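Summary for the steering committee. The consortium agreed at its last meeting that each partner would contribute one worked example illustrating the joint modelling workflow. Our contribution is presented below. We chose a case with several input lines so that the handling of multiple components could be demonstrated. No manual editing was applied between input and output; the record is shown as generated.
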Amino acid sequence: MRRFLYEAFCFSLCLSLVMVSPSLAEFSLDKYHSPPEVSSLLKSWNSQHSELTKLISIGKSAGGHPLYVLQIAGSSSENLSSQSRPAVFVSANLEGNHLIGTEAALNLAHKLITQYPSDKKIGRFLKKRTVYIAPLLNPDAAQNYFEDVRYGRKSNAKPLDEDLDAQKDEDGPDDLNKDGWITQMRVKDPEGKWIPDPQEPRLMRKADPQKGEKGIYKLYTEGLDNDNDGEYNEDFLGGVEINLNFPHDFEYSQKKTGLWPVSEKETIALLKFLTDNHNIAMVLNFSTENTILNLKQTGKPRLAGDKVQVPDRYAEFLGLEKGKKYDIDELINILEGMDVFGGREIDESFIAMMLGLGPAMSLDKKDKSYIQAVQKEYKESLKKAELEYPVNKAQGVKKGSFTAYCYFQYGVPVFSTDLWSIPLPEKKSKKEGLTLDQLKSMSSEEFLALGEEKIGAFLKEIGAPERFKASKVMKMVESGQVTPSQMAEMIEKMPQQKGGNGEEHPDLYILEWSDSQLNGKGFVEWTSFQHPTLGEVEIGGFIPYLKTNPPPSKMKKPITFHTDFYLDLMGRLPELNIHKAEVEPLDKNMYRVKLYLTNTGWFPTSTAQGRRARTAWPIRVELETSGSQVVFSGKKIETIPYIGGSGDVRKLEWTVRGKKGSKIKVKAWAPKLGSVSTSIVLK
Amino acid sequence: MIKNKTFIFILAAGLFLAFWSPQGLSGGKVNLNFDHFYDHEELTRTLKKLEQAYPQFMEVQSLGKSYQGREIWAVILNNPKTGPAEHKPGFYIDGNIHGNEIQGAEVALYAIWYLLENYGSNELATRLLDERAFYVIPTMNPDSRDHYINKVADPNSPRTGLIPHDNDHDGVADEDGPEDLDGDGSITRMRKKDPFGRYKTHPQDSRILIPVRPGEKGEYTLLGQEGIDNDGDGRINEDGPGGYDMNRNYGYNWQPDYVQRGAGPYPFCFPETKATRDFLLAHPNIMGAQNFHNSGGMILRGPGAKNMGKYPRGDRKVYDYIGEKGEKIIPGYDYMIVYKDLYTVYGGSIDFIYSVLGAYTFSNELDRSPMASMPGAPQREEPQDEEVQRWQRLARELDEMFYYDRVRLGKQYTDWKPYDHPLYGKIEIGGVKKFGRRVPPLFQLAETCHRNAAFCFFHADQLPRLNFDKIKVKKLKNGLFQVDVLIENTRVTPSISTQARRQELHRPDRFQIKGNGVQLISAGKLTDSYRDITQRIETTDNFFWNQTGIPGFGKEDFRLIIKGKGKIELIYDSLKGGYLTTSTRLK
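What follows is the complete predicted structure of the assembly.
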């Protein structure tokens, strides 16, 4: 009842605010917005700023929630339509339980709209660029946070028969202890595999028989066996997890990922929007993946930069050496020279297709260097902003995720951040001892100077395998076998040790954080409950949403930081310009025309992966002749694969016969770059 | 039991038809000729005519419209008197997903027509219509079918659907396709006299061009397909109609366009592939499937790509049994595996139907090359000396010209004729016309149709055929009965494929008992009847799931412990193996 009154109060407060000031003041970063609230915010912003915004409905979720994209584009002096300008797509909460992502996307939209008139940088940017913002792409799942019983839903509302009993969604969790959260049940069972952690008995871990431990408990999700099949909560409400339903490295036969890639209304709506809008040149995403910090990809590298072996039957036909490994460029050269493919363009995709090599699985080297540069700045600004973000815990891209699709198939620069994560407690040893970051920038001499004791302590702290004794590691460094920075890289790749061995429980820091920062509200203490079929059980454990969303009071700092960081990234879009155009007379009525095209943006005009995927089109340069003008050498239509960033220049040349003083027009264009043109006078 | 019932029914149905139908048992209600190709309008008319003639068996449905607005027709064949369609193992056929590979639609139409016309007179046709449901999409790609048949085309295109696609990335779609410059109805080739060209004429036949040897003087340059540079970008025919491949757009092991051209931006993004997918999903009883393509004479099965690994052993045995019989039904066709024997296909229809829906699927490449049927034509030989190969090629091409002259009687070949091209000047245009390759000559069409339909009938007949074989009731103490039930499967296809079982693709078979006050206490599989060893199965509310189904050419013994008395009904409900019931008494 008290909660209801409180909500009623909040609601009336909102209403009164709306009534008092119809401006954008009603948005602030102190609560999570429910799907209907997100929709009405977008609608009200759109109606108040129709000169700047357009609210596009791209479809509906499986559960019937609208899916919106807010388009923001200022009117330009050249009257450029929103679709003919380079654009940034901002997406959020495809996972459904990443509520903070939605708030961050809303905040970004809010900032662009409200500061458009006053902030010169934003004003200039929006006059020549378009920003599309989709703050809530999995509303079915997100809705769960605002319901009476919350379980951290990630799937959409498409009914699914997970347990193959010809019934759908009939055995979901039940809030047995009526606390509004779905947590866990532990039951004493002779076949149990779990024990309370000896150091922190609230946390459960698997018994380790090698240490003489015997399991005591079985663990279940809180709930009943609603369909009487002996299984608990095996057929949840819904559905498919939207952020696993995209087509790069999609996992088949997994139910929660969908029957096939892009099988869901949400995924289809989103990809249709992206493929219909060729002008989208960058994607900035909010999800639990932090792809700026963690560059690990989902599969083993295959095509990208790898050497490939040509199957014998082709090798013979093509006169190649059997069993030898070639790199792709080498093969392209060889095959181009053979002229046996009837004039077909021989490129990577052709070779991949012919040899059945499959898709690229790793970041292209050329792209990676740009991502690393962004990473460096990101890390530095995180530190400066004192965000306490646990950098080493950042999760990488997931199989079949939207971010993976955007890089590998849609072919644009994409960045995803999780905004916030539970901070790691500062370790005593870390204050004096060595940190990973220090190690990275250390020379071998500096490392050795630390001495055996400090190095030993550091190795122990990071949980290095026992065979790596301080003395051995020092020898390796001394002999040049490994450098400190290589070592740091290896440590980062090391799997985190879990439980056992008297070591800390991996979730201990979460519990400590909940105890100290949330007065223990993040954890439901184990409490006895009489279960109808399992008998005496205890219900308890971490509450859903705890690990991915801060309490609303802690939301502002990370969101403000990331809003600014994303605004900065948007400002680095490639920008196609004509550096200069020159005419040099060769003879009477014969001229050499030179055009210097430049990219004044920070990013190259396309990613290497975009070029491989052929979704980043080359720049098309057209020479428009008039009257008696004749192009003598050079083609009237030229294509340039790409131009590098930060003012890189590409020169084109034509020899033209034409009357002195006559004009010739040149236009350069690509869907993700817009177009530039100029008139050149022959003189 | 079923057998007896069926027999009586056939007898009854036969008698009924003999008295009722003026045409009698010999069929012949609808006279169809398989001596020409059906465009979409004629196909539509014909399907409607068949539906009118056989309303009791046939239903024509529209699955929606193609991009250009043609209906995508699906036919469902079933005899409702022997049960609803969803209670029978289903057999699916589609054809013509590639626009130029048209004869698949004629084969599908023939199969429909043959079953209907021969019901009651032919034992197999009768059994199939009684015991199986057929789901047939004669053409998946009506837009390109009509384009190929009624407009100018060449043997290889349009393979795509007709949604405009910007192949040359200039911001405009489909603006520079080929043209029929010489007005012969087909897109043929252009050549130009050129002493620096890399071709010269064949010494015996000047219509044939052969590559010159190094250092040798040439006579001709080949200029590609007939056409002009419509968009003035300096290239010819670089952006024709469409530009994608719907048989790379299915949602299993799909890969994007850069891994294989034509895949589309995501699976099922085209109206035609989406419509057929929804039709397949709406009929989960489909257990066998057949796609028709051209050409080469192949009976193909998946996997389409190596990364899928081998099919499970249990399923390979089913495929091999049917595929190898197929080689005898259609002489000259080879039973092959797509990725191993042909090329890599990601996102193809056969992989989707097998790996996602759990149904055994073949794809036939209809019609061998006319050359291949000639004695002495080289086939898949070890590579030989270059000069020997050159002579073999010369001989083969002479044979081919002989075929166009003396078998096709000149109708499918346009002799080179001069033409004044806006860009190339004086050139010659000529070559094989659109019906000259890949589709069968009309005098062979009926044979293609019959043999391939017969292969479908064989496969459909090999879908699971389940029977309650014997039921033994034994009275136990305390009012309990032990009921032993044997279910046999007299066909090669199991009621659940190994793939479906492993990947949990669909619900297992359901065994249920019904009766007044009757209660199923326990159930199991009798794994060793001599030693009385039973493997327990979890039961719920008088039913249990049989996870493994009934194996092909095999049986399963069930032992039920039932409380109660009197008549009980046994229901074995297999999603893909049929729905059968029988009854017995507890006494």
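Chain B is about 25% helix and 25% strand. The CA atoms of residues 190 and 429 of chain B lie 5 Å apart.
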